[in-house]
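Technical annex, item 7. During the second reporting period the consortium partners agreed on a shared format for inverse folding records so that results from different sites could be compared directly. Each record opens with the tokenized structure and is followed by the designed sequence. A conforming record, contributed by the partner at site C, is shown below for reference.
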């Protein structure tokens, strides 16, 4: 299972990748992409909008189901991955690279987030769900 150690994760299967200047990249994990199956559409948030930790920021649709996307930290949307509008399959092919969804400016302290867990904690969480 592909769970990069340097990232943080949420139990709703989003990953959080710290970037420069208090910003971060958010997308869904390889596990979530695999469970969803072929992604066919992603409803993205509006650039400039601010969300509170745990709020729904979008929707992802696959051939199997439709799922809400939740933001793991309070943040303002700086950028959306416009490539996903034409190529939602990037989420399945490269979730931690070309399949990223949003770039955000973190509002507040990431370390106080109740949503974020380490790669090891996420791995244990996923294994518990599989069994």
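Designed sequence (site C submission):
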């Amino acid at each position: 299972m592909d769970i990069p150690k340097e990232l943080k994760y949420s139990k709703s299967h989003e990953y959080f990748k710290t970037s420069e200047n208090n910003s971060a990249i958010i997308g869904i994990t390889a596990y979530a992409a695999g469970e969803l199956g072929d992604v066919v559409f992603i409803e993205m948030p509006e650039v400039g909008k601010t969300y509170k930790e745990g709020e729904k920021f979008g929707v992802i649709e696959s051939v199997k189901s439709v799922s809400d996307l939740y933001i793991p930290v309070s943040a303002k949307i700086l950028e959306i991955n416009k490539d996903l509008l034409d190529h939602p399959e990037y989420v399945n092919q490269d979730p931690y690279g070309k399949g990223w969804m949003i770039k955000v400016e973190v509002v507040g302290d990431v370390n106080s987030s109740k949503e974020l867990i380490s790669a090891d904690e996420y791995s244990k969480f996923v294994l518990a769900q599989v069994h």
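Residues 125 and 131 are 10 Å apart (CA to CA). Helices lie at 30-36, 83-86, 90-93, 119-130. All partners now use this format for quarterly exchanges.
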